[in-house]
Write a structure and sequence with these properties.
- With about 270 residues, the chain is α/β, with parallel strands linked by helices.
- The protein has one domain: NAD(P)-binding Rossmann-like Domain (Rossmann fold, 3-Layer(aba) Sandwich), CATH 3.40.50.
- The protein has nine helices and eleven strands.
- The protein has helices at about 15-20, 35-40, 60-65, 95-105, 140-155, 175-180, 195-210, 225-235, 260-265, and strands at about 5, 25-30, 45-50, 70-75, 110-120, 130, 160-165, 165-170, 195, 215-220, 255.
- Helix 4 runs parallel beside helix 5 (about 140-155).
- The longest helix is centred in the middle third of the chain and has 14 residues, at about 140-155.
Length: about 270
């Protein structure tokens, strides 16, 4: 059976691990503390408490990736609370943390790295976005993710696939609450670029099964209603106050296509009505 290590068994990583176990993968999963050990191990996941650092990493990192063929990095930059990640000289830079992880990967059995990135790397381009669109991030998170993408793609010790998710929908992420009750919301006609957790997991499984490495993939549901249409209807569906929109200015917003993913993986989205 194939062994996979998932760095970050959180909102995405934990249900992904459980889905892979059902397909007979052997899963090692990490959390930043030991308090989730029982939860993970009850699900059949070998747990490792690992907190990424910019200097020395804890010894468990070597055991965590030992004998694994694939490493999935599902840890987003920490931009809130204590120990925020910044891309400058700050000691907590997420880029530096991933860079510090690389020597451990290079001397391990890991052949493939799947990095969970975000469509934030495209910035605010007012256009249709494909994987060939230049990266022009404007947020701190987007800038760090773009740097890490380059860092991983340039490493020849393993094969890397970059998976860029749109806005994440699923448990504890109800789209009806995103804009409900807000006033004067900009860009009413801009298209939405969302994806459900079920499809996130389905796509990752498909990448592993088809061994689709050394590529970059956008992962966004093919349906792109306008912000006004979508968030108004979602608010009504949940008996919430619909947002009001500012229609005095032209709407600006990118539409992200997942055509490459659909073609390469022969993938059919299961959650089209988000």
């Amino acid at each position: 059976m194939t062994k996979v290590s998932i760095l970050g068994c959180g909102w995405l990583g934990f249900p992904l691990a459980k889905a892979l176990i059902k397909k007979d993968y052997i899963i090692k999963g990490s959390t930043t503390t030991a308090d989730k050990k029982e939860t993970l191990e009850n699900a059949g996941i070998t747990h490792y408490p690992i907190s990424l650092e910019t200097t020395n990493l804890d010894i468990p990192i070597e055991a965590f990736i030992a004998e694994s063929e694939t490493l999935i990095i599902a840890v987003p930059p920490k931009l809130r609370g204590k120990n925020k990640d910044y891309s400058d000289s700050n000691k907590n830079s997420f880029v530096k943390k991933i860079e510090n992880l690389l020597p451990y990967i290079e001397k391990s059995s890991v052949q493939n790295v799947l990095f969970i990135s975000s469509t934030a790397v495209y910035g605010e381009a007012n256009a249709t976005i494909t994987e060939d669109t230049p990266l022009t991030p404007v947020t701190e998170s987007g800038r760090q993710l773009a740097e890490i993408e380059i860092l991983l793609n340039q490493n020849n010790h393993f094969k890397t696939t970059i998976l860029r998710f749109g806005g994440l929908i699923g448990p504890d992420r109800n789209p009806a609450r995103f804009l409900a009750g807000k006033e004067n919301v900009s860009n009413p006609e801009a298209p939405i670029n969302l994806i459900h957790l079920d499809d996130c997991i389905g796509i990752i499984i498909k990448i592993l099964e088809t061994k689709t490495w050394e590529t970059q993939l956008n992962a966004v549901t093919p349906n792109h209603p306008s912000r006004k249409e979508y968030y108004t209807q979602k608010a009504l569906d949940y008996n919430l106050v619909p947002p009001t929109f500012n229609e005095s200015n032209p709407s600006i917003g990118k539409m992200i296509t997942s055509d490459r993913l659909i073609q390469l993986l022969d993938y059919k989205f299961t959650q089209l009505d988000l």
